[in-house]
Amino acid sequence: MFLKKAQVKNFIRNVAVYPIYGVLFCLLTSFSASSETATEVDLRVNKSRATVKTFAGKLVKELKQALEEGGPVKAIKVCNIEAPQIAGELSEQHKLRIGRTSLKIRNPNNEADAWEQAVLQQFEQRKLQGEDIATLEYFEETEKGFRYMKAIPTKGLCLACHGEALSESVKTTLTEYYPNDKATGFKTGDIRGAFTLIQKD
Question: Which of 11, 51, 55, 135 to pair with 88, CA 20 to 30 A apart?
Fold first, then answer.
């Protein structure tokens, strides 16, 4: 809403005579700013959710195909190559940075920073309090930009490469591709890790 010069002078005079005008003005401008901020946050959250959904969908498709063609060993090799490529393509396409991280990482390039570690630990606490892993997410405006994380639940598909009882061929392949792998020992229903995303613009 824009006021003409005469209206502005009249408004200032009213504020001086009737303080309630000043109160109303503050309330209206605060509401307007809050609405704009909420809208911007909603847009960023929706963009984050959509990008994560696309990433997860493409990765699951590649892994399922690899499992059908060559079992867990091929899935490990495909994940090693395809996951970073998919993340890179989506990051460039949407002008952001997306990836995966965990408290028990497989790829050292996915190691969680302090903020991500705190969110992952928060997810674990929320899970203990009864929240559904599928709905666990967190977002916040930070010095690095708008950050978003969504938990990854451990499902049956994950256990061949991330479970407690791995085949010898899987162990050998993991040692070859990820000599410092820590991402095993998971059970169905555990939090495997999280998608993590930063928007700067």
Answer: 135
